[in-house]
Design brief:
two-stranded antiparallel ribbon, 20% strand, alpha+beta, 206 residues, 7-stranded mixed beta sheet, 9 strands
Length: 206
């Protein structure tokens, strides 16, 4: 009888232990685990320097958005700068409804890529977002960016990056509005080739 009671107590203890392990909530995972982390060591140092300077101007913000921009006028057409062998990017603090597809939104697709710099998170918008499942992207973004953050139109800047070489410049909104953005490196002047005159050997033999 005593042995039966001991076995009963043992099984109760074992059952209680199993229930506790089952009922325990799993440890909170990193909300960014579902996104792709971009390696900043493969980025141009001049470009990272521009981002570093912008982030330094906004010490109270912990998350930012980096997207492709259009700010260069080429023969009356606003482009992203590729015609001058450059690309333009827009960087600004992240805000709650940036990807809800509304009037004040950046896009209707949440970013699937990000990178870290100066202990801050930079969400990187790309065309890959359109074929990426959005559930984890949306959840990650809203776990990082609180509901209280709203768009601030004055807190944005533009980064002009040269395609070849390690060159980039940080431009203000006023500079972009002027639509007079010069390439970082001046174009090489086209030199017209002039063929040298060849004397007619036949005339010299006459």
């Amino acid at each position: 009888m005593k042995q039966t009671a001991l076995l009963f107590v043992f099984f109760l203890t074992l059952l209680s232990s199993c229930c506790n392990k089952t009922c325990q909530k799993p440890a909170d995972s990193n909300p960014l685990d579902g996104l792709v982390l971009v390696d900043t060591t493969q980025m141009k140092s001049a470009f990272l320097g521009c981002i570093h300077r912008f982030i330094k101007q906004h010490p109270r913000d912990n998350a930012f958005i980096l997207e492709s921009g259009y700010g260069y006028e080429d023969h009356g057409v606003i482009t992203n700068g590729v015609y001058i062998n450059n690309d333009i990017f827009i960087i600004h603090p992240a805000y709650h409804d940036a990807f809800m597809g509304g009037e004040w939104s950046v896009d209707d697709m949440y970013p699937s890529h990000y990178f870290r710099i100066d202990d801050r998170i930079v969400f990187l918008c790309s065309r890959a977002d359109s074929f990426t499942k959005q559930e984890k992207c949306r959840k990650a973004y809203h776990q990082i960016v609180p509901d209280s953050l709203r768009v601030r139109y004055d807190d944005l800047a533009f980064i002009l990056v040269e395609h070849k070489g390690n060159k980039a410049v940080l431009l203000s909104g006023d500079e972009i509005r002027k639509r007079k953005i010069c390439p970082i490196s001046a174009f090489r002047e086209v030199v017209k080739f002039m063929a040298p005159k060849v004397a007619d050997e036949g005339l010299g033999n006459e």
